[in-house]
Amino acid sequence: MKNSIKTTIFLLLLIVLPTSPVWAHKAYLFAWFDGDKVQTKSKLSGGKPVNRGQIIVYTTDGVQILEGRTDAKGEFSFPLKQPKPLKIVLVAGEGHRAEWLFQDEMPAEAETETPAPDQPVLSPQKVVESPSVDCKKQALTNADLDKKLEPIHRTLAELTEDKPTIQDILGGIGYIIGLVGLAAYFQSRKR
Amino acid sequence: MHIAEGVLGNEILIGSTLVAGIATAIGLKKMDYDRIPQAGVLSASFFVASLIHVPLAFTSAHLILNGVIGALMGWAAVPVILVALLLQVVFFQFGGLTTLGANTIVMALPAVLCFLMLRHFIGKSPLQTNLAAFLFGFLSVALSAVFLATFLYLSGEGFWGVSTAILLSHLPVMIIEGVITTFCFRFLLKVHPAMLQFYRPMESVHSGNPNANRA
Question: FRET pair for A60, CA 20 to 30 Å: which of A139, A186, B190, B199?
């Protein structure tokens, strides 16, 4: 019986040891528009940033535009004058891959018909009357907003990671118990 | 260690699904239906094992447990691990549905290979038993790393660089799994040897009838 006690204690110790970033199961990619460039952040499950991961940027038609590597913080940025739809792919080694569909977030020109919701509403007539001043004002406002929004984007990047919850674990184990029950039932019917 | 969606090419996905399907069929055929509860417990352990982190010096690793599953289940390790991998995809998004076949090959086939290679060494001298038990755990993870590197090589990455990196990074896991498997074996051999798949009188093994004379 001593052996079994030792074994149980050993296994329990393994379970109870504090968790920390793990060799990854999943890679996450988050990207946002940062004024004049697109900022991407890559992480592995558990929070570890992807170092020297490969980032490939495609158009929505699948044409590769550019390619680069993430730095030690898992970040990689490339210049982009105006946000347009892009597909960003992260290849993180050991079979990990993540995608991010980058959308048109904020209109950057003052001549757009629909004004951005976080700016003073410019009616079309006003824009026509004094285009240069409003253009500059909008560009400044855009830049300010991008700066203010960047911490929020980063926080969103942290939050998008979905860790396995206890409900997931119990759900999975429940399915296994169900399968065992089914198999046992059919086995008993055979007999 | 789970291969994500979109990493492997279509031919590899189809081929690996076929091979995994064949291996699962063999495993189901060889599954002893008295052992279904055990299979369920092992499947649940595999399912949860990836969440158990073992912090090491500068990094940490997670358990895989395919050595223990191979030792206890033999060929039936394939459906056991397949079910656990499927649930991991659905619930945790570890790996992918299209790569389910490839991931099964990576995790389950090493267990079966170790079972086929090492089962004769259990139950002889204590040293052989302990060594074989350690190798069960160690080799299962090592072969999994090799299979993973092979899949990545087939999808375009260079083989030696990737495989050395994966093997080195999983070396602590191999050792820990070897130790755990040894503990499991010693415990089971003392308490309930019949649970070990290969613990049967040698005659039935040579006669080729896997159902005969279950100890």
Answer: A139
The residue among B122, B94, B129, B6 whose CA lies nearest residue A99 is B6
| Dihedrals phi, psi of A159, to nearest 5 degrees | -80, -25
Query: How many residues does the structure list for chain B?
Result: 215
What's the angle, vertex CA A94, arms to CA A93 and CA A97, rounded to 5?
60
**B8: helix, coil or strand?**
coil
- The residue count of chain A comes to 191
Pull the structure tokens for residue B177: 């799994």
Residue B122 is which amino acid? I
Residues of chain A with pLDDT under 50: 14-23, 107-129
Q: Which segments of chain B have a pLDDT < 50?
A: 200-209, 212-215
The verdict on a CB contact (< 8 Å) between B7 and A97 is yes
Report the residue of B24, B41, B92, B195 to disrupt the A interface, i.e. the one with the largest count of A CBs within 10 Å.
B92
Please enumerate, as own/partner, the contacts of A3-12 that have beta carbons within 8 Å and a separation of 24 or more.
Answer: A3/B186, A3/B187, A3/B190, A3/B191, A4/B187, A4/B190, A4/B191, A6/B183, A7/B183, A7/B184, A7/B186, A7/B187, A10/B180, A10/B183, A11/B180
Q: Do B165 and B139 form a contact (C-beta atoms < 8 A)?
A: no
Of B44, B173, B183, the CB nearest to A176: B44
| pTM value > 0.80 | no
CB A49 within 8 A of CB A72: yes
Distance between start and end Cα atoms, chain B = 36
Q: Could you say which of B4, B63, B92 has the minimum Cβ distance to residue A27?
A: B4
3-state secondary structure of B60: strand
What gap in Å lies between CA B134 and CA B145, rounded to an integer? 17
